[in-house]
Design brief:
Length: 433
Amino acid sequence: MRIIFLGAIALSIFSACASPSSTPASLPNSTAISAPTLIATLAAPAPTVTSARANIFPGLFSSPCATSTPLSVSPIALENITNITPLGNLNPPAHTFPTSHMYFNLPTRQGAPGEGPMGDGRVVPQFPIVSPGKIILKSVFVSDLTSTRSGKPVSYTEYKPTFAVCGGIQIEFGHTGPLSDRINAAIKTAPPRNCQEYSTGPDTVRGCNYELNLQLDAGEPIGFNSGRAFGFDFGAYDSSAPQQKFAQPERYGFEGRYNVCPLDLFEPNARAKFYSYLGQLVSQTKIQLRTSEPLCGTPMQDVAGTAQGNWFVNPKEPNPEDNNLALVYDNIDPTKPVLSVGVSVKGLASNTYSFARKSSGAINREFSAIKPDGQVYCFEQLVKGQFASQPVDAITILVALTNAETLRLEARQASPCNASALTFSANAATFYR
């Protein structure tokens, strides 16, 4: 484990995509941000709308990249972040599968009891976010959210801008807002499209997409992080790159199949600085860096014909990620196996469960060794949770592959694994590739 010292950086232990629950300190507590909100401090010239060009993938600009590193400016000043979470983070149920985006995590300050994303008084300041290069702001998804993460329902608005870079490359930010006057003015004149409503974890989301096609210069203001999450998302997707080799790629959208490391799109000096933040914050001044290649992380971990990878509760539809299951490896320490459990397993709370893996036998076996061989495998001495890890002594988990595309899993209120009782009951859940 490699530890890097950061100096005086405030602690932010949640690198996962938490949906916050209080108004940021920089705004009145009684104010709910609703789209569009104009921010005078980010005033910019009237919007310039570009004409559409031929696409090589739906929704993406097709002009070729002049260089393999078309981005040059950090979207947020590095002195304003604590660490960058690699691809493949797990935070079930909303992120039961390894994430295809990174997190730029932010410091917190202690506010009043009840404030902050989790209602525990930790407040996330808002910092400016700028364009990382000369790019096209293709669209903004405007979400009105209601979250019960802090124990009571709180409503607020967040924004997810999507940008076309060049050559079929797309980048996205999440948990942003308010946005600049220029962007909000464009939103006000654009018709809402693809409106949807869904629930994930403790959050209900109602939102619409607004097509903009605004040309942005490197360093041009976009807005702020929302202050409603402990960081903001940063994802990159390249339609010209080889598809990720999921066991069933048709179950995944563009973000899943074509994700790439967003840090590698930056010129070398900026990229090197980003990589020095790439890991998990373990104390106020220390980052546990990921040291295994690829350093950016690995969202796609499917191994066809084995238990390793992503599993769906529905045999055909992609369905909400909350319902699903992943048997994968940690995005900081990829030697650590993790069962990422959604909401479909009776008697087992949605969470991550890790264990000390073994290279033989039927107990705590590595996921890629579990095949449709008629054997029921058992996991014991589990550790629950990504950050505040808790030993779970009274639960074992049974897993078996019925065939290459069907997996059964059951939680048992028993410990340790009993070799004479490795059979499923009616409580077993079935998952599919």
